[in-house]
Structures are given as C-alpha cells and as structure tokens.
Amino acid sequence: MSFLCRPKKTLFFLLVLFGFFFASEVQAATWYVDTATGNNTNAGTGWDAPVAQMVRAQALAANGDTIMVKSGTYVEPTTAGGSTGNIFFSKAIAWIADDGSGGAGSVIVRAASTANSTVAAFIGTAVQSWTGFTFDGQGTIPFVMLGQTAPQSNKTWTNVTFKDGTAAGQLLRFYSTPGGTNNVCNNCVFTGTGATGVRSDATPVVLNNPTFSMTTSGAVGVSLSTNLINGSIITGGTATLTGT
Length: 244
Prior knowledge:
This protein is mainly β. It has one domain (28-243): Pectate Lyase C-like, CATH 2.160.20. Helix content is 12%, strand content 38%. It has helices at 2-24, 54-60, and strands spanning 30-33, 66-69, 72-76, 79-81, 84-89, 94-97, 107-111, 118-123, 128-131, 133-136, 143-148, 155-158, 161-163, 170-173, 183-186, 189-192, 196-200, 206-208, 211-214, 220-224, 233-235, 241-243. It has an eight-stranded parallel sheet with strand order 1-2-6-9-12-15-18-21, with helices on one face. Helix 2 (54-60) links the parallel strand 1 and strand 2 (66-69). The longest helix has 23 residues, at 2-24. The termini are far apart.
C-alpha cells in the first residue's frame, strides 16, 4: 500500500514546490496618479482609484514597478533629500507621464517650496526612468534636477523638459563623484533661465537629439569636465559644449 501511495506523495510534493516558486515570482505592479481626481487614501492600482501625489505612489511602489501620472501640474510636498528638501526619487521605478503616451509637457512637476535648491533629486545606481515630464524650477531653484548619492548610473530621460532654474543655475546636474555610467537623455529639452543645461564633473552622459533654448545671457548647453568630453556622446541637436 505504501508503495502505491508513494507516487501520489511525490506528485503532491512537486505541486507544492511548484506553487511555492510560482508564488515567489512577484510580478511588477503599475500604480496610478491623478492630481485632479486622485486621493492619497485610494489604492492607486487603477485610473478608477488613483492617488493624488507622485510621492504617495512611490511610497506604495516597489523596485521594478511602473508609475503612470495623469496630465496636470503636480506641486509635490518636499521631503528630506540631502541638505535641503526636494522631490526625492528613491526607488527603481519607471515613471511615465500622461497615460503612457510620453508626450513632453503633459505633466509639470514643481516643488512645494521655491526656496529649495532642487525640484527633484535622483539617487545612486537604481534603474530609474522618466518619460514625458516637465520639471519646472519656476526661475527660483538653482538645480532643477540633481543627482545625489554617487555614483549615478542607469538613469534614462525620454521626452523630458527641464526648465527655468535660476539665472546662475543648472537644469540637470550630476553629482561630482566619479564612477557612474549608463545615463541617457533622449529627445530632452533644456529651456528658459539657467547658466547650464546639463552639467557633469564626473559622470558620462549620452544626449540623443537634445534641444537647448536657454534664455540666460552666456548660457552653456552642456558643461563637462575635460576627462568626460570623450566619454560622453551628443547626437543631433545643437549645443555649446565646454570642458570645465
């Protein structure tokens, strides 16, 4: 009798084992944000129950998830990030604006306080991407988007606009510690006030078809340290390039 039962026991064991591994394969989730109709008490798991703020969606999300952000202007609460408050992108998340269409300008992101030194900050080597956003310094913030926690690697911006830092500021600034890699801007726009569109003293960056329309007198599109000029790539567009 025990011999006859053994195949059933073996099959049962295999099914349990398979179920365990299947359950352990956590699928990446998608979260939804809508400043007009959302509420931070919502689940955030669909357009029928979106949260209201990007920082709330990030709190709900896990590394590897995607966050969809509906068209609108997002004045996000400031959170601790370095020495001053800013919107702090701390997880490995794909951020997509305007229902996934990725059209530049449909989602405008601003800091709650114009006294901050940045609108948004990104960190370290986490795989992070932004598609279709506009980060707006409103002419009062020196660094519209700033890299923190060096080295910065694996960052991708597509159809993103960086605009209106201070007249002496930088619209996209990489932290000055060497070692970063795999940072790419695709079809990004650097516009309005600011002394520099993109500045990096230590991290190579690839700029595919950038647009620079800086209005500050003497503004520079790209400022790279001398050792980075050969390691960085600029394709298409027109930029004034300097080695700092």
